[in-house]
Design brief:
The complex is a heterodimer of chains A (about 230) and B (about 240). Chain A has about 230 residues and is mainly alpha-helical. In chain A, about 75% of the residues lie in helices and about 0% in strands. The chains are: A mainly alpha (about 230), B mainly alpha (about 240).
């Protein structure tokens, strides 16, 4: 049936985009959005949880830095589909099946950015802090980390956007918010379902990018006016 | 004489060792493709995609450097591609305009591999010293000659980085294309998963991970060689 607001570019089959589909499936769309956002946040937060100590350790010795960088490169080279399916047997239907691989990919982006951010620091600032009697741990928490925040947030932005895109692959194992809907649409040969959620994924990524840009500007007011 | 009871072992570990030791999983049997056949398919898909990516990306970047707004186009393409899910695009291509799985895979792989080649080639050419191009023009070279014998050679180190990133990305993403029936190493994972044969799944994961990491270090080595031959390079854009 052809409805007003439908968009076809083929003679047969259901429309690629349909306003009617969106209104009648609003509930599913909302819950898929919630799942997609939750999975993304869990993955990036887990990645961040590991990335900060890893970057801190990597700075201690040159060989540790090489080790951490190489580990990240190796992790990043493992294709996502293989990584996710490999964990299905271990975590079954738990969201960890998708969250752990995605967390390790975001870890790679985050470690790289945190290291760059920490390297930017002026040696004199650290010397001054040490002269004031700050311990190494205190210097890391109170001086190094805050100065690195803009670069870290830039890394988080990058990680969030690419994670939103990667969550879709989770649809292959019956998870992953929009991804699940995209794969269902594919299996059912439903053009509308496939395309709607594909467009939604792109929109979500763009919205997340814009929101994080605003956050980045709000928490680093001294950098306003500097190109990001 | 007592008979030794044969224990039926269905553990995952058993499945994995069976898969690795079976000749059929490496060379194929009963119409099922083995690892070597799939590896060949994977190399073929990746190679075709990489050649197409370079054939489109490098000239396109070269043309964009001639245009004032070129930089904006390059960053928009790179940012835009990052927010589009490649699996979604593959499924879309196969359901819609391209019915053949392998063709759809190559198209999607090329689309997503163009940004690294595009950005690196663009940066490489833009960072060529103005004095070098100025001298070339002063020697009476035409614009095309300046491009061919001055700008492109000086940009080669960065182009090499772009090609390396594209190659590694294509190899990794080509495994996902098995979902749409393109063949290649990803088929070990999808085929094993559909049959719940975790021997094949884990075997596939190992083969895929090892080849991906090997390709990555091989390409880094190749990039270093190219950089060494074409002189000191500006820092790589990752």
């Amino acid at each position: 049936m052809r409805l007003p607001g439908d968009f076809h570019f083929e003679k047969q089959g259901d429309p690629w985009l349909s306003w009617h589909y969106i209104t009648s499936n609003a509930h599913t769309i909302l819950s898929a959005t919630r799942t997609h956002v939750t999975l993304t946040l869990e993955a990036v937060l887990l990645g961040l949880l590991f990335a900060i100590p890893m970057a801190a350790v990597a700075r201690q010795r040159p060989w540790l830095r090489t080790l951490v960088t190489n580990l990240c490169t190796a992790l990043y080279a493992v294709p996502s589909l293989a990584f996710i399916v490999a964990l299905v047997k271990v975590f079954q239907l738990s969201s960890l099946t998708v969250v752990i691989p995605l967390a390790s990919y975001s870890l790679v982006i985050l470690v790289r950015n945190i290291l760059t951010g920490l390297d930017e620091i002026d040696g004199e600032v650290v010397d001054a802090a040490r002269g004031m009697g700050m311990s190494n741990v205190l210097i890391f928490i109170k001086i190094r980390l805050p100065i690195a925040v803009p670069t870290i947030i830039a890394g988080v932005r990058l990680a969030v956007v690419s994670t939103i895109e990667l969550v879709v692959i989770g649809g292959y194992v019956g998870q992953g918010g929009y991804g699940q809907q995209i794969f269902q649409g594919f299996a059912a040969n439903s053009h509308t379902q496939l395309m709607t959620y594909l467009v939604l994924t792109v929109l979500l990524a763009l919205v997340a990018d814009a929101v994080l840009l605003v956050v980045q500007r709000l928490i680093t007011p001294w950098r306003r006016g500097v190109a990001t | 004489m007592t008979t030794i009871p044969v224990e039926v072992n269905n553990s995952t570990w058993h499945q994995v060792t069976t898969w690795f030791s079976s000749q059929a999983s490496w060379f194929g049997a009963d119409g099922e493709a083995g690892v070597f056949h799939l590896l060949f398919q994977h190399i073929w898909i990746s190679l075709v995609s990489l050649v197409l990516t370079c054939a489109i990306g490098i000239p396109l970047a070269t043309a964009l450097t001639r245009w004032r707004r070129g930089g904006l186009v390059v960053t928009s393409v790179a940012n835009g591609a990052r927010s589009i899910p490649i699996v979604g695009v593959m499924l879309f291509l196969v359901v819609g305009p391209v019915s053949d799985g392998t063709h759809a895979a190559v198209i999607a792989l090329v689309i997503f591999a163009i940004p690294p080649v595009l950005t690196n080639t663009f940066t490489g050419i833009r960072e060529v010293d103005r004095e070098a191009t100025g001298a070339a023009v002063g020697m009476g070279m035409t614009r095309l000659q300046v491009m061919r014998s001055v700008e492109l050679p000086l940009a080669i180190p960065l182009i090499a980085t772009g090609v390396r990133l594209a190659a590694v990305q294509i190899w990794a993403t080509a495994t996902i294309a098995a979902i749409i029936g393109s063949g290649g190493l990803g088929e070990l994972v999808t085929h094993g998963y559909s049959l719940q044969d975790y021997g094949e799944v884990y075997g596939g994961v190992v083969v895929i991970a090892v080849t991906a990491i090997a390709l990555d270090s091989l390409m880094r080595q190749a990039e270093r060689t190219v950089r060494g031959r074409f002189g000191a390079a500006p820092p790589a854009v990752a």
